[in-house]
Amino acid sequence: MWTPTTRRQHSRANLRYETDLTDAEWAVIAPLMPEPASCGRPPVWTTRKILNAIFSVLRGGIAWRMIPKDLFPRSTTFGDFARWRDDGLFGRINHHLVMVDRDRVGRSASPTAAVLDGQSVKNTESGGPRGYDAGKKIKGRKRQALVDTDGRALVLDPQPADVQDRDGAGPVLRLSRRTFPFIAKAFADAGYAGDRPATATIITVHIVRKPKDQVGFAVHPRRWVVERFFGWISRNRRLWKAPEATLASAQAFLHAAAAMILVRRLGRAS
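and the corresponding structure tokens:
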């Protein structure tokens, strides 16, 4: 519930753009950013300003060519984004911040339980891998998300929308074994029932089924946290559809959105 106190805590009215990092937020993420090259011409734009521009593209849903003129050249911003994307930087940042935030609230760095679900979104004319989700009647992509029981993103994997949940679960669960090896159980809906998710890893997939007498919408135990996560990242207009031409860019923006949630949370707590 919003109160005058919480509104003041979350206010970003004193920033040039609401997506800009505050000093406290920059202190959280700065140690995770790569150092400038030790040779060659010194960079004209600071890493903090480049991140501000990338977060502006993410939150506002604007094209790279429409970055405001008072920010930075689009070629510089996209060039740094592409380099960090190819290096897996956004995923590493999110992975680190998940462990830091879990430690902050007194939980172990690696969770033992997680929640798995998918979200289908329409694609745009930019092309790239896509498919048709017959169940949702959506042509585009599906975002597989594995979150901990508090809603922090552990694994984010964009896939063509025609990949069924039971087929898309395997890569997500296998990747989670590398980054969070102590996960023993994953809660999921009936779309993940079957032998493929159950035998993909040693993780036990527990199916949370709808009550037989359910009519309309209902909040299901465990599963609701991943739906809340999809709601959180959907505040970013860049994620309203699937405009990226590559799955690598789509995954980088997903990781950036998840990391931004934790950066702001940790910045307020500092």
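(Above: one complete record from the training split.) The first helix runs from residue 4 to 10.
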